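Summary for the funding panel

The consortium committed to producing paired sequence-structure records for every protein in the target list. Below we show the first two records in order, beginning with the earlier of the two.
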Amino acid sequence: MHQDIVYAIRSLRRRPAFALLVIAVVAIGIGSATAIATVYDAVLLRGLPVRDQDRIVVMWGENRARKFDHVPLPYSRVREFREQTRSMSGVAAIDYNGAWPTLFRHHGEPIEVTGLPVSGNLFEVLGSGALMGRTLTAEDDVAGAAVNIVISHSVWLRQFGGDPAILGQSLRLVSTGAQCTIVGVMPPGFEYPKSAEFWASIGALSGARDPRAPVHVVGRLKPGASLEMARGELTSVFAEEKSPILQGATVVASTLPDVIVGDVRPALRILAVAVGLLLLVACVNVANLFLIRGVERSREMAVRSALGAGRARLVRQLLTETSIIAVAAGVLGALIALALLRLLVAAAPAEIPRLGEIGIGGAMLWSAAATVIATALFGIAPALWAAGRQSNALGAASRWATERGSERLVKDVLVAGQLALAILILTSAGLVARSLIRLQQLDLGYSSERILVAQLGWPGTKYSDVPRAIALYDALLAAVARTPGVVGAAPLLTGPFSGTGGWDGAFVVEDQRNPEATNPILNMEVGSATFFATMGIPLREGRAFTDQDRPGAQQVVMVSEGAARALWPGQSAVGKRVRLGVRATEWWTVVGVAADTRFREFRTPRATVYFPLRQLPFPYPPTMIVVRAAGDPAVLASALRKAVAGVDPDVVIARTSTMTALLDEPLAQPRLNALLLALFAGVVVVLAAVGLYGVLAWTVKQRTRELGIRIALGAQSAQLLYFVLRRGMAIAAVGAVVGLLASVAASRLMRAMLFEISPTDPLTLFATCALLLIVALVACLAPARRATRIDPMTTLRTD
């Protein structure tokens, strides 16, 4: 073995360019594969910090007829369901709205933490214990109980510096003044639901005020029970409810891992496939180079065989060489992987769960695995082929021996395979890039430039009723509007892109029959006289709100175009009347129609009904302000805080965000997908071009004598150019056809990553195919031109 290693190093040192090229190609493949495999393992494969995670079921309702895809169940019914179920050993609940930013005061200083109310037995059902202290229990979930909270590991480190004495400390909830005691810290990686940083019991927070708090159901399946059984049981509970929304709902059930990583699973899988193909292309390319080198070394192998070396001995020697290259490439690949991991973690959107669990140790293990795989892919077959090759290398004519037809076919197939894989990845990258372009060019329905969104927090005990809260809002808006640099200010009920965490209502149209079964559930928002001008939402019909839309005046609403089409198809909505709910008695008159907006949902406009701030139909005033600035909105943050404090020092601005920054959130994942796929596609195309260049360069070298004779017999440069280009472009054409067929066959995998574009989009397929053929032509030109410069006299003189 020592002799094999020494000889292998000498052999590689005689061809340093070959060795460095192979190491670089394999290292790129190993590094990319290692980085993505590490992320894939941390996010998708590694178990959550819960017991038997695949037996945890999350369920909610869906009413397709009314276009409402997240129908909650009242918490009181969950308690009943817990006693009745036969398919689940435990049933818990989480707030329907998910995790929301919540303002606390700690030692007098305001801190914002994202969290939600849950049932006290949630952690028991999940089978999750605390890292420090304890979790919530059923005793915490009763009216009148002390408000105990559990915090996440990340917020413990970020907000409290990892203080081990955090247990027992109190936080004051700004909205209610309630004292909340920290009783536990969860272990790293516990992130359910998404973005949750603290958990408090529903019973302690709401008391006896709201037993019908809207929730989603979390349960643990009994041994032998299935998702279908649990879904069927909960469907009967929905059917028993008197609410038309609940009666018409079907139950959606998913396992906990699917709920947590469902949004990013398709993208990670596509990226994992892309990187796997990249590693395969790199290894096939290197295998091709080793096959070419094997032809060069055929005389050496023949001499060694004649001197008594058996086939096993030759294979061992060649595998030693490939192993040395693979180890060097593995070390370099590990360094590349660590650099890529840092970039991935920095660029990855917050929606990707458990990024904090990605570690160097896991990367090293995946790098070692990728190195072993790469060695097997590019080393074993060429070594066996070279060791078993019989040739006339020792004969007089060996100098001009050319490769056999079968050998040439193998090389051509390998190169065509690389080009086919390159087409597959390049097509995927093109589709994702075009999808991203469409997302970035979406008409939002409002002007997102120079907009600042501020989250407010105030003591609910001080402003306990809606009139006081609205009076406060009037004063705040007036103070903010007077701030230098502010063009307009308006209230905001729901934050941008809040998804299910917003306000929805069932509306009844005047003189409508059977409204329970036909009307969609609509998004609700609060407006003011300045709202539509501040947001830059165009008015399509009628008028906007005015200062005269106040208590005692006619109750009015505005609707979006989508809401107008849904409630009064083919008619003008202005002047029509609606009620909020079947049992409501108050009528609201539509005074204006505004453009549809992509505000609550980025990809889909939400049909919306707007209520005037001073005529709120529900006891929940807005908690946000939207501001339009004359210049850069980010510089207004401190001035806004001063203006708000001037109205009431107890009111604070918990957080400010520009609309541009908020728009980056829904675009972050598509941008990352497009960037990574484009990077991998570019590398694969370069590798495939290098492989094609290598095969043609070797062909010209092997057939130098033949080409010299052709020139001596009168062959023109154009004929020789065509002779070489024909083979190269034939290989490229075969690879392109196979790649296009593979892209069409794999189109289903791409659907989840695309927006308003077909996975078999002809323009993308044609463009990627044309691009690859152009790259292939460029790769063929250098060997072809070299063939035209062969000197026939020099060639024949050496024969």
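The next record, for a separate protein in the list, is shown here:
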Amino acid sequence: MGFVSQISEVIPQLIDAGRQVVERGLVLASGGNLSARLTDDAFVVTASGTWLDRLTVADFSIVNAAGEVIGGADRPSVEWKLHHHTYAVRPDVAAVVHLHPQHALLVDMLGERIRCTTLDHAFYLGRVARVPFRPAGSEEIATLAADAVADGTNAVVLAHHGCSALGDTVSMALRRAMNLEEAATMTYRLLLAGDKDTDFPQEYRDRIISI
């Protein structure tokens, strides 16, 4: 399957994902960025300065494995390295949704881990990784985030910045991003109630797939 046919499939999905995450308050204005793998050697990513709820076909850049822009908009998101490094370590990942959700960041800033307390959270996320703050667009943050998900983890919080959710489709990456913020919201409410222990039953974690 060539670039043209793949782009015609994934860009509408990314445009729809962008609209949904803004509507749900997971990102504001031109924050956040979305990408999808085209081939083993290239991916499409939202361009610099784009608003996720106003995306058009012209708002995407095509970047190759060497980090070169080979099509589309001239200036990819400043976070293109974050996507580039993630695809390099996770050949099973076909899409990355990078957002700035409030509760995920809030829980992290409180020094707490995001708990996957419900069946959906445990199924779609399993666990949530976390990396310390590094400047946006830097090689450091891209490397830290990629290392955090190299073991198969599909969600990572970037301290004082945002989060990335991964999937084998755009839909799955989006679903994980939504579940991550819901898990963070649930965690925050438990903390407000004074609960620091409640979590999904450990004895069922390895049996979730068969439920």
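Regarding this second record: The chain has one domain: 3-210. The longest helix spans residues 170-192.
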